[in-house]
C-alpha cells in the first residue's frame, strides 16, 4: 500500500502548506470559509498555528504587526471578494507603515470572473489589490506555488518592507501533481532581505554635516525600531551625544528616561535644531513635512538614513542622503566616526535638558490626581507606573485623546514595545495588534483604547478569550469620540456625531466570553485591576470611566480639521 499511486501525489493545498513551512512561516491569521476552510484545517494538522478571527481586518492587522515585530512577513488568509476586501484595509495599512505582510486570498474561477458571469463571490481581486500594496501575484498552476510564495516573501521584506497580495483561485487547491515534482518545485528563499550597504562617500558626507552642527538632533522612527539594530543605534546616539527624539513607535528603542531623550522637549528641538539626522523616519505629516512653523525660521540641514532612495527630497532637500539598511548604515557611520568624535555642543544639550525637565515637572502633578470620574492624566498616571514596573509588556494604543496623551505620559523602556495607529492614524488596529503581539512574543499586552477606537475591533475580545491570551484591554470610556458632551443642534435627543450610549459597561463584553471584566472609577482601582490582570495573564477588560468633558476635539491634531471663515451654523 506504501506504493499506492495516491501516496505519490500531492495537491495545491499541501504545496501551499509545505511552501509556507519551508520558509519558516509558523502562524496564519485569518477567517475561514470557501475556498480556504480546508487549507486552514490542513495547515493546523501540519503544525502551523492557525489563529481564527471574527473579522479579516483584525486578522490582517495581527499579521501586519507580526511582520513588524519579527521582520518575517505576517500571513493573513481570507476568503474571496468580501473577506478579501476586509483584509485589504489591513494590507494597505501595512504597506503605508512599511510592515512586511502577505495577504493570501482564495478567489473565484478566472474563466467566470473574466467573463463577469456572476460566480460565487466574484471579483477581480488581483486588479483591486495591485494599487494598494507593494506587489501582487496570482498562481494558476500547482507547480508555480513555490515560486509564487518566494516572490511574495521577497517582495514583502526586501528593500522598504510592505504588504503583498497573493491570489490563489479555488481550483488551484485541488490540482494534483506528482509529489516528488511538487517537492522540487518549492523554493526556500535565501537571504530574503539582503543587506544594503551605503556608499562610503554618502557616509562621509553625512558625518561632515553632523560635525558642522551647533544644534544637532537625531530623530528615530519606526523604521529604526523595525531594523532590530538596537545596540548600534544606541551606540551611535551615545557616542555622538546628540539629543534624540523618538517618533511614537520608536519610543523605547532607547529608554524615554535616557538622559539624551528629547521627547519632552519636542517643540524646542524641532524649532531650534540646525542639523537633523532622520533614522527610519519620513518627513510626512507627523513631522509637519520638515517645514513651516514647527520647524522655526533658522535654516536646517537634513541627514536621512533610509532604505528607500525615492524617500530622499520627498518634502525638503536632504543635504546628506544615506541609502541602505539601517543596520549597515549605522555600523558604517560608527566605524567612520572613529574613537575621538567630538562631544555635542554643551550649550545646546543644556538648553534641551532644561526644556525637558521643565515639561516633565509641569506634567508630574497632573499624573498624581485621584479624581473620579477620572481625567486622562489621572488614569494614565496609573498606567505609566505599571509599564515602568513591567517594561517587557507590550503597549497597544489607539484613540484620539487616549492616544495622544498616553504617548506623552507613558514612558517606554525597550524597543518595539509600543504599537499604535501609525502613519495613517487609523482606528481599528487595537485588538488585531494586541492578539498578534501576544501570539508572536508571548509577552503580556496592555491595550489602551479610546471607547470609539475599541469599537472598530471589539468583537475580537472573543478571540482573546478563545485563545486565552495575556491581553488586558483598558477602555477610556468618555462616552464618545473625543468627548461625550456634544448635543443635537436641533434640540432632539439623538446626537448624530460623537456621543455614544452614556455609562456603557464594556467590561460586560469580556465577561460574556469568560474573561474578567472590571469597572474602574478611580486611578487606584484602575491600577489594582491592571496589575491583577498582568499578574494573572487572564483576558481582562477594564472599563475606565473618564470624565466626558475631559478630552479635546481630535486630541492633539485638532488643527487638521478644515476651518471655514464662515461662522458655523
Ligand atoms: O514640546 P512641547 O511643549 O510642544 O510639548 C510636547 C512634548 O514636548 C511634551 N511631552 C512631555 N512632557 C512631559 N513629560 C513627557 N514625558 C512628555 N513627552 C512629551 O508633550 C507635548 C506633546 O508631545 P507629543 O505628543 O510628542 O507631540 P505632538 O505635538 O502631539 O506631536 C505631533 C504629532 C502629529 C507627531 C502627534 O500628535 C502624533 O503622533 N499624533 C498622532 C495623531 C493620530 O494619529 N491620531 C489618530 C487619528 S485622530 C482621528 O482621525 C480619529 N477618528 C477618525 C477615524 C480614524 N482615525 N480612523 C478610522 C478608520 N475612522 C475614523 C476617530 C473615529 S480619532 C477617532 C476616535 C477618537 O475617540 P476615542 O473614544 O477613541 O478617543 P478619545 O479622544 O479618548 O475619546
Ligand atoms: P515614523 O512614523 O516612526 O516616523 P515612518 O514609517 O514614517 O516612521 O518611516 C519609516 C521609514 O523607515 C520608511 O521610510 C522606511 O523606508 C524605512 N525603513 C524601514 N525599514 C528599514 C530598514 N531596515 N533600513 C532602512 N530603512 C528602513
Ligand atoms: Mg472616547
Task: Describe what you observe in this structure.
- Residues 12-128 form the Thiamine pyrophosphate enzyme N-terminal TPP-binding domain.
- GO terms for molecular function: ADP binding; identical protein binding; magnesium ion binding; oxalyl-CoA decarboxylase activity; thiamine pyrophosphate binding.
- Residues 401-543 form the Thiamine pyrophosphate enzyme TPP-binding domain.
- Belongs to the TPP enzyme family.
- Pathway: Metabolic intermediate degradation; oxalate degradation; CO(2) and formate from oxalate: step 2/2.
- It is a single chain.
- This protein is α/β, with parallel strands linked by helices and 569 residues long.
- Helix content is 38%, strand content 16%.
- The protein contains 22 helices and 19 strands.
- The strands form four sheets. A six-stranded parallel beta sheet has the order 3-2-4-5-7-6, with helices on both faces. A six-stranded parallel beta sheet has the order 15-14-16-17-19-18, with helices on both faces.
- It is globular and about 75 Å long.
- The termini are far apart.
- The mean pLDDT is 97.
- It binds ligand OXT, adenosine-5'-diphosphate and magnesium ion.
- Magnesium ion (MG) is lined by residues 450-452, 478, 480-481.
Amino acid at each position: 500500500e506504501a506504493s499506492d499511486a495516491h501516496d505519490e501525489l500531492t495537491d495545491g493545498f499541501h504545496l501551499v502548506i509545505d511552501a509556507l513551512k519551508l520558509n519558516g512561516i509558523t502562524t496564519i491569521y485569518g477567517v475561514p470559509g470557501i475556498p480556504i476552510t480546508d487549507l486552514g484545517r490542513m495547515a493546523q494538522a501540519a503544525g502551523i498555528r492557525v489563529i481564527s478571527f471574527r473579522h479579516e481586518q483584525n486578522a490582517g492587522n495581527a499579521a501586519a504587526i507580526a511582520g513588524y515585530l519579527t521582520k518575517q512577513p505576517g500571513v493573513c488568509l481570507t476568503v474571496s471578494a468580501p473577506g478579501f476586501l476586509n483584509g485589504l484595509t489591513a494590507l494597505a495599512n501595512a504597506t503605508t507603515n512599511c510592515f512586511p505582510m502577505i495577504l493570501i486570498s482564495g478567489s473565484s474561477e478566472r474563466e467566470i470572473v473574466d467573463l463577469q458571469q456572476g460566480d460565487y463571490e466574484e471579483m477581480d481581486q488581483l486588479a483591486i489589490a495591485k494599487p494598494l500594496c507593494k506587489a501582487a501575484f496570482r498562481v494558476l498552476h500547482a507547480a508555480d506555488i513555490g515560486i509564487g510564495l518566494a516572490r511574495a516573501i521577497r517582495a514583502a521584506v526586501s528593500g522598504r518592507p510592505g504588504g503583498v497580495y497573493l491570489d490563489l483561485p479555488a481550483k488551484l487547491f485541488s490540482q494534483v501533481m506528482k509529489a516528488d515534482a511538487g517537492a522540487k518545485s518549492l523554493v526556500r528563499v535565501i537571504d530574503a532581505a539582503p543587506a544594503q550597504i551605503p556608499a562610503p562617500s554618502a557616509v562621509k558626507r553625512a558625518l561632515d554635516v553632523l560635525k558642522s552642527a551647533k544644534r544637532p538632533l537625531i530623530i528615530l522612527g519606526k523604521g529604526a525600531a523595525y531594523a532590530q539594530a538596537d545596540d548600534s543605534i544606541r551606540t551611535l546616539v551615545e557616542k555622538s551625544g546628540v539629543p534624540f527624539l523618538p517618533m511614537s513607535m520608536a519610543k523605547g528603542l532607547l529608554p524615554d528616561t535616557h538622559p539624551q531623550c528629547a521627547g519632552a522637549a519636542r517643540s524646542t528641538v524641532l524649532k531650534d535644531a540646525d542639523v537633523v539626522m532622520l533614522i527610519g523616519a519620513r518627513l510626512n505629516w507627523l513631522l509637519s513635512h520638515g517645514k513651516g512653523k514647527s520647524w522655526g525660521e533658522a535654516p536646517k540641514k537634513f541627514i536621512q538614513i533610509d532604505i528607500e532612495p525615492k524617500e530622499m527630497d520627498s518634502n525638503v532637500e536632504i543635504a546628506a542622503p544615506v541609502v541602505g539598511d539601517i543596520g549597515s548604515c549605522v555600523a558604517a557611520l560608527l566605524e567612520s566616526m572613529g574613537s575621538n568624535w567630538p562631544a555635542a555642543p554643551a550649550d545646546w544639550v543644556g538648553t534641551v535638558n532644561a526644556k525637558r525637565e521643565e515639561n516633565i515637572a509641569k506634567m508630574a502633578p497632573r499624573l498624581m490626581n485621584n479624581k473620579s470620574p477620572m481625567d486622562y492624566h489621572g488614569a494614565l498616571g496609573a498606567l505609566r507606573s505599571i509599564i515602568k514596573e513591567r517594561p517587557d509588556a507590550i503597549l497597544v494604543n489607539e484613540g484620539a485623546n487616549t492616544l495622544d496623551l498616553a504617548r506623552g505620559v507613558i514612558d517606554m523602556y525597550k524597543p518595539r514595545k509600543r504599537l499604535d495607529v501609525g502613519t495613517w492614524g487609523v482606528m481599528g488596529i487595537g485588538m488585531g495588534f494586541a492578539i498578534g503581539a501576544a501570539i508572536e512574543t508571548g509577552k503580556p499586552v496592555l491595550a489602551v483604547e479610546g471607547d470609539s477606537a475599541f469599537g472598530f475591533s471589539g468583537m475580537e475580545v472573543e478571540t482573546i478569550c478563545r485563545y486565552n491570551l495575556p491581553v488586558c484591554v483598558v477602555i477610556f470610556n468618555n462616552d464618545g469620540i473625543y468627548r461625550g458632551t456634544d448635543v443635537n443642534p436641533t434640540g432632539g435627543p439623538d446626537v448624530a456625531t460623537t456621543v455614544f450610549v452614556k455609562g456603557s459597561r464594556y467590561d460586560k463584553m469580556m465577561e460574556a466570553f469568560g474573561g474578567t471584566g472590571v469597572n474602574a472609577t478611580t486611578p487606584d482601582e484602575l491600577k489594582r485591576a491592571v496589575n491583577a490582570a498582568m499578574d494573572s495573564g487572564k483576558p481582562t477588560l477594564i472599563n475606565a470611566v473618564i470624565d466626558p468633558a475631559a478630552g479635546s476635539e481630535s486630541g492633539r491634531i485638532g488643527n487638521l480639521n478644515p476651518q471655514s471663515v464662515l461662522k458655523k451654523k
